[in-house]
């Protein structure tokens, strides 16, 4: 677990993201449940995207990361990530589901993608909106 968290933290390297009121990248009604689904995505580097997701009262942070080479470990449900906020406090989030690696050939090399979803409370979303994110 420490290796996975360390890789994600090292991957992002001192990027600051502030909350702001703007249009959603995705804002539609789920046809099955009739609940509104909203998402904003922030591409932080060419290999790292962070998305804020909300459906009804469920809030999540989704992390999509691409790593060079074949990775053969999975991120287990309940694993944690530590996110440094703009006010230097730490936010600890827990994975909502298992995230399996998806490896593929790109050009002449192998790469692996992860799509990791973290549970986040309304209070934690408010902390992010007040101070922003600075993952180091």
The low-confidence runs, each spanning 5 or more residues with pLDDT under 50, are 5-19
Number of helices: 2
| Outline type | globular
How would you sum up the major sheet? 8 strands, antiparallel
Structural class: alpha+beta
Range of helix content: 10-25%
**Cα radius of gyration in angstroms:** 15 Å
Encode the helix/strand succession as letters. Answer: HEEEEEEEEEHE
The fraction of residues assigned to DSSP E strands is over 45%
The end-to-end distance, rounded to whole angstroms, is: 18 Å
Annotation, overall tally of beta strands: 10
Mean pLDDT: 80
Explain how this protein is built.
The chain has helices spanning 2-12, 122-131; strands spanning 15-17, 26-29, 36-45, 48-55, 58-68, 80-84, 90-95, 102-106, 109-119, 133-135. It is of the alpha+beta class and 136 residues long.
